[in-house]
Design goal:
- By secondary structure, the protein is of the alpha/beta class.
- It has one domain: P-loop containing nucleotide triphosphate hydrolases (Rossmann fold, 3-Layer(aba) Sandwich).
- 32% of the residues lie in helices and 28% in strands.
- The strands form two sheets. A six-stranded mixed beta sheet has the order 5-6-7-3-8-9, sandwiched between helices. It has a three-stranded antiparallel beta sheet with strand order 2-1-4, with helices on one face.
- A hairpin with a 2-residue loop joins strand 1 and strand 2.
- Helix 3 crosses helix 4 and helix 5 runs parallel beside helix 6.
- The longest helix has 13 residues.
- The radius of gyration is 17 Å and the shape is globular.
Length: 220
């Protein structure tokens, strides 16, 4: 379960505080998918950063599986994030010196854990259609293929929550459609999926649709 309760976020500026989010609340259960829409600068990425534990809210509370991650020590928070949250960004953030397989395994390497990570990484890469590209470097992949690697990496540790920030924003129409299909199928992995997007086509694939308007979250 993901709960965001009365989340507000402000940043100091030379002219006073800049409010990006005001009293935003959101509750999603496992297996649920949601799209968050809104124009550039509306606070979509900020909201994802907060519920993904990358930055704290100015006020309000986040709970993932009953735990408020912002009450943890920095070391505990990093471990929690690595195990419970998967990220997919518009820019895939793959390491250019690592192979496709190594990039997918990065969350496990950070956690210094093993187990079934290697067979799971292979299974996920097979699912996203890249089993024949295990030893390739990111420079040898198309934009859509890089995002497929990012999706496999996000699922490696069986997270509770997967966050995707404009995951099709840099892709051509055909690649965007392929990535949209993969994202829509994430419910089979029993995760909570939250996608920030400008694309109505992508948003329509998910169970719930919200829009950030004037710092507040509304149902579409």
């Amino acid at each position: 379960m993901l709960r965001a309760e009365a989340i507000s976020k402000s940043y100091p500026t030379a002219n006073g505080g800049l409010t990006v989010l005001s009293n935003v609340s959101l509750t999603l259960a496992k297996g649920c998918s949601a799209a968050i829409m809104g124009p550039s600068g509306s606070g979509k990425s900020t909201l994802l950063s907060i519920i993904g534990t990358l930055e704290p809210p100015t006020s309000g509370r986040v709970s993932i599986d009953g735990c408020d991650p912002f009450t943890l020590s920095p070391k505990e928070l990093a471990r929690f994030r690595n195990r419970r949250v998967g990220f997919i960004f518009q820019d895939h953030h793959l390491l250019p010196q690592c192979s496709v397989l190594e990039n997918v395994l990065l969350p496990t390497l950070v956690a210094k854990s093993g187990g079934d990570s290697l067979p799971r990484a292979r299974q996920l890469l097979d699912r996203v259609g890249l089993i024949d590209r295990l030893d390739h470097r990111p420079a040898e992949l198309s934009g859509g293929e890089k995002q497929r690697v990012a999706i496999a990496r996000a699922l490696l540790n069986r997270p509770t929550l997967v966050l995707a920030d404009e995951p099709t924003g840099n892709l051509d129409a055909q690649s965007a459609e392929s990535i949209a299909e993969l994202l829509a199928e994430m419910q089979a992995h029993d995760v909570i999926l939250v996608v920030a997007t400008h694309s109505l086509t992508l948003a329509d694939r998910f169970q719930l649709r919200f829009e950030l308007v004037d710092t507040k979250l509304a149902t579409r």
